[in-house]
Sequence to fold (84 residues):
Amino acid sequence: QFVPQIGLKYAPRTRTMSQQYTIAGTKFEDTILIVVRHNKAINKKLIVMLPDKAYYDIVGISPDDSNNVITYDIVTLKLNTSIK
Fold:
């Protein structure tokens, strides 16, 4: 059973056509991107549940480790079909 550990607000991120062509045929082909405020608690062991009630595995994290006051991470998600 899914037990929430943290709750974050996010924004979906779209890919450019060039990015879509680049990832075609790779393990990232059927993934989506979301952007969240930088959070060191995010790791690839977590499972994400979005408002569509679907579960996603984290397959990539692009953290913003800059010294800016407000930073954002880009998280790559892949649909997890094994969890119902």
